[in-house]
Amino acid sequence: MSSRYLKRFALSIWCVAISVAGGGATGLLSVQTALAGTAGEGCAECHQEIVGTFAGTFHARIWSGMGQEHGCQSCHGDTAAHAADPTLQNVLAYRAKGGSPVDELSAKCLECHAGDTHMAMWDMGQHSRNDVSCFSCHIMHAARAEVNQPETCFTCHRSNRAEANKQSHHPIIENKIKCTDCHNTHGTLSPAMIKDETVNQLCYQCHAEKRGPYVWEHPPVEENCLICHTPHGSRHGKLLVEKIPNICQDCHDWSRHPGTPYDAEKGFNGSAPSERFYSRSCLNCHGAIHGSAHFENHGLTR
To answer: What residue spans define the domains of the chain?
Structure first.
């Protein structure tokens, strides 16, 4: 007799013995309900496919050898009531529609994962405050714990999907960088849940050459990279929020060069277009736009 059927036989004898001994209503337990009191036993009666493939999941591999107390009840809570009355109201149900409340699901996950350092700010994160549960991104019975990025993120962040597909973009859709390279999706105190105190410090992790120090600094560079650049994608080169020279004239509209707008009417008069309309535009001269180490000229030239 297999161990599975041996357990069921032993529990059947136990239920009958309690009933005969006058156990009352508490003794009149069905075998399925009694099995539900142990870790995972009895679940296969209704959930054969899930139980049959559970051994290949990352949770099962982690719990291997840790004892029988780790099983279905570790995530779904006490299943005895659910076995007697199989509805979603008396068990933790990880479903997008008709499932348990988000705070209850997240609290159950945190019983094991609260000790992880990247979970320290979960309650402060935008996901938690917007009723996004762990189950919204993670698949409980998956073979691997990794989230499918960026597709999972793009399910909600649709504007970022559009930006990541523009002509100038970080290599997100090419899977060369992940959303979690820049963001801690489990919560931070920083804006947009980035993985550093400021945007600039985060950008410097890859773009270290822009850190400086410089003899002549460009003020917006020191303040915030996002003044000129957008992080996910742009229809302008170099992830710029506007095309040069327009982006330069957002600030430089009165000093040095005349403040006349560089538009189609002013830029294409005469026998040749303005030098600000071909090649690198303003950067034809001001090539060291992030900062200059040229001691004799403060015009951010090389």
So the answer is: 102-179, 215-292
